[in-house]
Write a structure and sequence with these properties.
This protein is α/β, with parallel strands linked by helices and 247 residues long. The chain has 2 domains: 116 residues, Deoxyribonuclease I, Chain A, CATH 3.60.10; 116 residues, no CATH class. 40% of the residues lie in helices and 14% in strands.
């Protein structure tokens, strides 16, 4: 959250007197226009408005960030006014990764405020997921549906005289369905490149182009992909519109 509070502390007064519904806030930063000994060693006074700022930050589960290099954040244009620290960063309380920031006084350019930066570590992580899947309109789908139909036909439901017998029948039905699914489903890996609209036919078209390297084969493949993707996402849009009862 970026905050600018003028010399009258309008933003802080608003945040203090208004119930702001913001969840999972990681950073609050900005020009708060407050000099205080809590964050400015060149300033010898402590102001009550600073306590309000700390209380507001605490309500968002944030605390004042530690400075790596304690230098001014605002540089005066006149000799009558000293440099100061009025740009602050508040970070998630208890975070071991977001717990400090830096001030770059040499990057002010045409501004009299120095940039403040926070390093956010991003760990490269490969998530390998897999699941059992039966492709639509495949031979496996036909076999699975046929097996399920047989299971339902052969299900003995004539002696359901109490809850225990009902549970036994339901458990047996679930077990047989799971066996039929496991027998006909194929295990696929889910990656960031997985596409729900993709099927084996597209793989064959793509393989054909990779083998021939002909422009016409590439155009045929791209045309088929374009038509299929449009139909797929139009269907998804329609499903969302029907569910939300709106555009």
């Amino acid at each position: 959250m970026n905050v600018y509070s003028d010399s009258s502390h309008s933003a802080l007064k608003y945040l203090k007197n208004t119930e702001v519904n913001i969840h999972n806030l990681l950073i609050m930063t900005g020009d708060f226009n407050i000099r205080d000994s809590l964050w400015d060693s060149s300033f010898s006074h402590h102001l009550f408005i600073s306590d309000n700022l700390i209380i507001i930050a605490d309500s968002f589960n944030l605390k004042l960030s530690i400075l790596i290099n304690p230098v001014p954040t605002r540089y005066s244009n006149t000799d009558r006014e000293s440099n100061s620290v009025i740009n602050l960063i508040f970070l998630r309380y208890g975070s071991t990764e977001l717990n400090n920031h830096s001030i770059y006084s040499n990057r002010c350019l045409f501004s009299n405020h120095a940039p403040l930066t926070v390093s956010i570590p991003i760990v490269e992580k490969n998530v390998h997921l897999s699941k059992l899947l039966i492709l639509k309109n495949s031979e496996e789908e036909v076999a699975f549906v046929k097996k399920v139909t047989t299971i339902i036909k052969n299900l003995d439901t004539f002696n359901l005289t109490d809850c225990d017998k009902l549970k036994d029948v339901v458990n047996l039905f679930v077990s047989k369905i799971e066996q039929a699914w496991g027998k006909n489903a194929n295990q696929i890996n889910i990656t960031k490149h997985s596409k729900k609209w993709w099927n084996e036919e597209y793989s064959q078209f793509l393989d054909r182009y990779r083998t021939s390297r002909e422009l016409e084969d590439w155009k045929s493949f791209k045309k088929m992909v374009k038509i299929t993707k449009r139909a797929f996402f139009n269907l998804k849009i329609q499903e969302i519109a029907n569910k939300s009862q709106g555009p």
